[in-house]
Amino acid sequence: MNTSFFIASRYFKSKKKNSFISMISMFSMFEVAVVTMALVIVLSVYNGMSEMIKDLYNTFDPELKVVPAHGKSFELDSLTMQQIHALQGVSVVTEVIEDNAFVRYRNAQVVVTMKGVSDNYVDQHRLDSMVVEGSFKLQDGHKNYAVIGRGVRNVLSLSLKNDFYPLQFFYPKRGKVNSIDPTKLTNRLIIAPAGVFAIERKFDYNYVFVPLNFAANLLEYGKRRTALEIQVVPKRAVPDVEQALKKLLGKDFIVQNQDEQHAEMIRVLKLEKFFVFLAFAFIIAVASFTILFTLSMLAIEKKKDIAVLYTLGATRDEIKKIFLFEGMLIAVTGAVIGLVLGYGILYMQETYGLIKMGMQTAIFDAYPVKIIWSDFFMVASSLIGITVLASYRPAVMATKYDDNRLLQ
Prior knowledge:
Belongs to the ABC-4 integral membrane protein family. LolC/E subfamily. InterPro entries: ABC3_permease_C (IPR003838), Lipoprotein-release_system (IPR051447), MacB_PCD (IPR025857). Residues 278-400 form the ABC3 transporter permease C-terminal domain. By secondary structure, the chain is of the alpha+beta class. It has two domains: 3-58 and 265-407, no CATH class; 62-258, no CATH class. The chain contains 13 helices and eleven strands. The chain has a six-stranded mixed β-barrel with strand order 2-3-9-6-8-7. A hairpin with a 2-residue loop joins strand 5 (139-140) and strand 6. The radius of gyration is 33 Å and the shape is elongated. The relative contact order is 0.19. Residues 404-408 have low confidence and may be disordered.
């Protein structure tokens, strides 16, 4: 065993429980454990919240989305559509027309994002679990239906049980209209509401799903579309299908996977997580001052021991390593205790959902957590690195106690 490490471990395991320095050392270790535990818990809860938000967005967003590189709409010929359907890995291709529209219900009115989708969108059952009232139905025979977000329903004070008042959709007519009559400046269509969905505020207060033909007639789009949403065959690699689509469609279209569809949100989440870690790293740095104080006091208390070691032939580097190892032992022991306690709390939360969010949602009621082992490693390594830096000054100070008069 390394001599410096052996002496450091002896100091760390000192039986002088009543010693002030021993008490400070134990307090330092406890402080490190608490900070480590808090950091891994916060990062894991943040991972869980981030994953939950991504899952919510991914529920709404398709696995692959095709949009025009220029403009907001495009027209695909039937041959290209057949080629897309024929690609290996493509399961469902949904045609989409999405644009803002003015909606009126009785005396209430609101501007919404109208999303017209082809019939096979319903067959995917992507939003069935998100429907909180009614059903996700867009057509029944020749009759069209709309499915609206819970926020839109609240703004309009809409009731699905009231069949006398349909939703009225308005959209400006295309081209030049020679009339001063306001009613002739816009297209107007009516549709009955069939269901209400609840996903996340961004969607709940904006989106209304309607049949594709309804949206095409209101916007006078004809065969034009704003996007294609593609579902990949289960167990098929999405990146492979994405690359095949890019090769087929060329530069006139942009193919996006789910991460690329909300890249800005993912970038913000990563930035927030970084600043959370940075804030706790600062707390760890503050906690390291306790270790610096502990080792400085220890160096003063052990100055006679240090003089003896010099007499026995110890070098300055070996004396310095004793106190560096002492700091590392405090940090590593505290970190291990903190990591074990943090993991235990996270496991209990993940398994039993002990801490509730205090609000009702359609998906969960307890704080979500996600354990990422790289976070544990990052916390432990950062803690040890900061502690070694804090231990360096006391270690250098200890090398100065080489005066033989200390032995007298």
